[in-house]
Fold:
Amino acid sequence: MFRDKKVIVVMPAYNAAQTLRQTYDEVMEQDLVDLVILVDDGSQDETLAIAKTLPNTIVHSHPRNQGYGANQKTCYKLALEEGGDIIIMVHPDYQYTPKLIPAMVSIIGNDLCPCVLGSRILGGYALKGGMPIWKYVANRLLTLVENILVGSKLSEFHTGYRAFSRELLERVPFDANSDDFVFDNQILAQILWLGYTVAEVSCPARYFPEASSINLPRSIIYGIGCLVTALTFRLVKMKLTSSRLFPNAG
Structure:
C-alpha cells in the first residue's frame, strides 16, 4: 500500500519461464506491492506452471495466444476488478528493473501525474543496456514524428514499463485498441488525447537472449501502426476524421 492506495503489478507473460521468478522476486522486494497479477498468453514453456507457484499472485491464462495487446487488456481489467489504485506493468522477461516501482508509485500516489513511463532514452541507458542500434534509431525517429503529430515532448513512446492510476485506466477506452504490439502506442496516445500529463523516469534496460523482443518484420508493422496512430490523432484533432480510439473532443 501507498497512502491507503492498493498497488498491483501486472505481468503480461509469454514464454517467460527463464526470467519470471527472478523478476517476481525483485518485484516483491519492493514492499509497496500488494498483489501481482500474471496473465499467461498461451505460453509454450513452463511459464504458467511457475506462475502458479508464486505467492500473492493471481494467475490467469489465455487458452491460446491472443497477442500482447489482448494480454494487457486482460491485465488491466483484472487489476481494476481487484481494486487496484496504482497499477504497474512489469514485463516478466527482466528487461526492466522492478527497483523503479517505488519511484513510479510515489509519483502517482502523491497525485503528481496519473501515468509514469520508465524511459530507456533518458540517461542514455538504451545503448548502454545493449539495445540494437537499428532499434535505437527507429525509436528516436518514431518518437520525433509522434511528438510532432501528437504535440507532446516525451523522450520515448515505446517503453514497456508503465504505471497508471485507477482513474486513468477507467477513462481510457483501451478496449478499442489493437490486440497486437501497437496497443502500447495507442493507449499512450489516448492518455495524451484525454489531456493527462505523462511523467518519465530514467530506466536502465537489459538486452539479452532471454529477454523478449520482436523481429524486424514485426517491428516494421509496429512502426507503421505507430505512425498511423499519431496521424489519426492529428486528423481527429483537426476534425478531419473520426476514430473510436479518440472519442469526443480532444
